[in-house]
Amino acid sequence: MTTQSTGTSDATIGAKFPMTIIEKLSDAGLRFISASPVELQRRIWICVGFEEEGERLGQHPHLAFLYGGRDWLRVHDLHQAIADEFSGAENVLTRVHSECLLGDAFGSTMCDCGDQMRLAMEEMESQRGGVFLYLRQEGRGIGMSNKLDALALQYGFCQGERKHHRHSSDEANLALGFAIDERSYNGAAGFLNALGIASVQLITGNPGKIGDLETAGIRVSSALDLWTKGGSSERATAEIEEKVARGYIYQR
Ligand SMILES: [Zn+2]
Hints:
This protein is an alpha/beta fold.
């Protein structure tokens, strides 16, 4: 956050260039897609598209949103500035968020994903720094089409026909032949490693996510649970109770 880009002046030509984010991602087994400043709620973030080697996400890459101390619109070498921004930084406020289109974009009150996303980005802005990773693993990794089948089961429908039993969200995944949680955090860990972050303060209540990131070499200095009082619907509260039964830790 405090490291400034050294730039690539004429004097450095012929010398060994510092690695750009493209090269650092490649070293971490990831493929850089593109990067640009984006304006969110009147503030400038950097958005980087990436995928794991072997992934074919096409026009829907994973996205990393970076909020930092520098004026991104004035940097001369964006790819270098991204590589330098969090290099060596401790306790970087970080959210590893898996896509939930209905919650993130449509205000779904079936879960707390949208709240988590909004609160995490607001916290990064107020602390003037953070990394928000948006991973394309909708529906805990089963994809949008399967998620619709899972939601139908949760509302008591099976292939359009009303049944007596309403599945919980965990039961629905299992009934469709999936694990309760199919997500992977390897791409997220690779991105954080490529940024050279020394340690993260992770916005999560999910010990499994912390464990997976630590296994992949990320030092998690602490976990932060963000929530809004009274903001959850009955349906979202039921899902949170399921998460607690699966070992999630919330300070609410
Ligand atoms: Zn959700």
